[in-house]
Amino acid sequence: MQASTMAAADSTKKEGFWSNWKCQVMELLYWRNLKQSGLVFGSFLLLLFSLTQFSVVSVVAYLALAALSATISFRIYKSVLQAVQKTDEGHPFKAYLEVEMSLSHDQMQKYAENAQYYINSTLKELRRLFLVQDLVDSLKFAVLMWLLTYVGALFNGLTLLIMGEHLFRFHMHLQFKITQVNSVVGKIQEKIPGAKRKAE
């Protein structure tokens, strides 16, 4: 009985975590906080542009150097400031160093199960297509791969990612605006007598 209660509590906790995470993602996608969404998508776009100009190793190295330059400079600045003011505030990143960053066994198991499901589904679908379980589906897949050879000759993968990111951002912004317009129209119809009845 106690074990089932603990399992139910863990399940509720996981659902709450995933629900909160999904809400945060939707907040970013719908640009409800312009500064936060702009920072995330701007950084992602900058990363994609950097990868078109430099290798992955170079981009990772430059990002690491930039982060280290910022943290080391801040650490030295705070140390000098504490020496001048004769204070003992301790390490400037102490709060972040004490944050627990390890994943629990349950979280690792959840991620592993999700990854296993997607990998198995992908492998089964590829086996079905390559071994011609359904001739029509295999021919469709062959045509798609043939078309992708032309797309690959015109664009590289990073260019397609950048274009996809722009299109996705435009789509989400447009969808958010349409939702706002529908909400305004609905409020106007509620205030106009007979408008809702005629619309129906």
TrEMBL record:
Gene3D superfamilies on file: 1.20.5.2480
Primary localisation category: endoplasmic reticulum
TM regions (residue ranges): 39-65, 141-163
Topological relation to the membrane, as annotated: Multi-pass membrane protein
UniProt source species: Cyprinus carpio (Common carp)
One annotated GO biological process: endoplasmic reticulum tubular network formation
A Pfam family matched in the record: Reticulon
Keyword Ribosomal protein: no
Protein's recorded name: Reticulon
UniProt GO cellular component terms: endoplasmic reticulum membrane; neuron projection; postsynaptic density
Membrane as UniProt keyword: yes
Top-level taxon: Eukaryota
Domain Reticulon positions: 25-164
Location within or outside the cell: Endoplasmic reticulum membrane
Keyword annotations: Endoplasmic reticulum, Membrane, Transmembrane, Transmembrane helix
